[in-house]
Amino acid sequence: MTGIILFNKPFGVLSQFTDERQGAARPTLAAFIDAPGYYPAGRLDFDSEGLMVLCNDGRMQARIADPRFKLTKTYLVQVEGEPDEAALDALRQGIRLKDGVTRPAAADRVADPALWPRDPPIRVRKSIPDCWLRLTIAEGRNRQVRRMTAAVGHPTLRLVRWSVGQWSLAGLAPGEWRRT
User: Fold this and answer.
1) Which long-range contacts (CB under 8 A, 24 or more apart) does 28-35 make?
2) What residues are paired with 55 via a beta bridge?
3) What is the CATH number of domain 72-164?
4) How many other C-beta atoms are found inside a 10 Å radius of the C-beta of residue 45?
5) Which of the two ends of the chain, N or C, has the fewest CB atoms closer than 10 A to its terminal CB?
6) What is the pLDDT at residue 125?
7) What CATH fold (topology level) applies to the domain 4-67+166-179?
């Protein structure tokens, strides 16, 4: 039977069970999850937070991670500045990046989601406002959301993946996991 684990990855944790880099050890999934036979279905950057889906079935794992299946991923994104409708429309239509045009995203401004505090906190500049967006994409290029917001002039300050397909982060504190 296929098993799924939902994990709320904290900031500064590798989305794998081992760190192959020489030198200073970085925290990995192994510091949080003791479930032999489960592997991440996709990645989440070291400096991003939020939902990771782990699976014990290689075919299901590939189906979750493979962009061909267009499984949506929703992110709460704190950006520098206050994007206008033109910037949001650009995200909705697809952004030209160095590796090609992205698929259209669902993009909306949202109220501050009152998430847990990040450690370390984001940089705050008194002279530059920030706001939150909800972005839903159906692909997963390297650092895609960060590159998309930067391309419309609003660099990402904090990135939290809220959901992957049918699974969401609801009820999971940073570092917590549960089987579904």
Assistant:
1) 29/54, 32/7, 32/175, 32/177, 33/5, 33/7, 33/177, 35/5, 35/179
2) 4, 39
3) 3.30.70.1560
4) 16
5) N
6) 82
7) Alpha-Beta Plaits (3.30.70)
Q: Which of 19, 34, 45, 89 is catalytic?
A: 45
From-to residues of CATH 3.30.70.580 in the chain: 4-67+166-179
Burial of 124 (0-12, 13-18, 19+ CB in 10 A): exposed
CB atoms within 10 A of CB 107: 22
Global pTM exceeds 0.90: yes
Token pair 């192959």 in the structure block, residue: 20
The number of residues in the chain equals 180
**Amino acid in the structure at residue 48:** S
pLDDT band at 133 (very low <50, low <70, confident <90, very high): very high
- Write out the residue limits of the CATH 3.30.70.1560 domain(s) in the chain: 72-164
Q: Is 108 a catalytic residue?
A: no
